[in-house]
Amino acid sequence: MKLDKVPTPAYVVDEQALENNLRILREVKEAAGCKILLAQKCFSMFAEYPLIAKYLDGATASGLYEARLGHEEMGGENHVFSPAYRPEEIEEIASICDHVIFNSFAQLRRFGARVKEIQAKRGVQQGIGLRINPECSTQDHAIYDPCAPGSRLGVTAEDFERAVEAEPELFEQLDGLHFHTLCEQDSDALAETLKAVQERFGRWLQADSIHWLNMGGGHHITRKDYDRQLLIDLIRTVKDKYAVEVYLEPGEAVALNAGYLVTEVMDIVENHGVRTLILDASAACHMPDVLEMPYRPPLKDSGEAGEKAYTYRLSSCTCLAGDIIGDYSFDKSLAPGDRLYFEDMAIYSMVKNNTFNGMALPAIWKMDDAGDCTLVKKFGYEDFKGRLS
Ligand SMILES: *Cc1c(COP(=O)(O)O)cnc(C)c1O
After folding, report:
1. Which residue has its alpha carbon closest to ligand 1 atom 10?
2. For the whole prediction, is pTM greater than 0.90?
3. Which of 69, 118, 148, 190 has its Cβ near the most Cβ atoms within 10 Å?
């Protein structure tokens, strides 16, 4: 089936675009001598994990469920970071994760030795890490800034030093350090961050017992204008200087511009001269980042409001007045039954969607390089009911 026939609403992942991204990531990996993992919280379409596994080193998780998914479907290295782990889940986490990264010395103190023991039985070494907070903000989206004063994410240099001074054996448990501070950024932001990391944590990185440094995600490596050579140079410098293995764990860069959300116009209403398309896709339910971040999703064959002859406000069937995707213009006037294609919808879409208002979840499709689309999974009333009681 071709894209223009796929029943709506649907996420359609473009496998050729996905593989192009993966090829770029593999080139970077090889040139820099680092490892790259998929951050599953951004893109967990496990039907594509066998393809991803051909190019990347494994997956990283935000907790037990994603870690299980990576373990079951990806193979390769399996990492996890969570602000806190539960005592009842730590054994399973240790038995399926190669790197377990803690967010505080309290969590390390509580679980570190147990994790190490279980990992050692599996022959896994050097698997204990701590997230550090370099306190270096390089962007202005407050909700995506883990470096702001008061942040819960990562240990600051001051707290790190105080803890290790009081309990040196805590540092001895650590095999690696992790930071994640970027969001959709270029390598110049990484350069600035690495300067802060080295200033504040350089003496710890230098220790013989620290074997790896994980530089998190947010590296927009596959974006057309991203400076990949600078990234490669930065990684090589850090590897040489501190004798560490370097990990990157991008989410967006893996599936950037690799999917559509296909929707249909159900009705058109007009109020005070504003013409609104009622779509069978919703910002609130199917692309929540549009409201949360917020941003304006790219839409195929459209322009800014007023740029082309016919301008519409794009909205949905939910009750939320503010469930507005944006104002877009088109060359032709639209009518019920017309289809629209939101672009860059593989990332942070299907992992975040919900059935608010009993809205249908879009089916998940994949499209091959000949443009043929195959249904991967569809959802129905049972999926809505199944999450409620
Ligand atoms: C979100 C996140 C990532 C992936 O970020 P992208 O912006 O999708 O590249 C990686 N690591 C951690 C710890 C994260 O929280």
Report:
1. 217
2. yes
3. 190
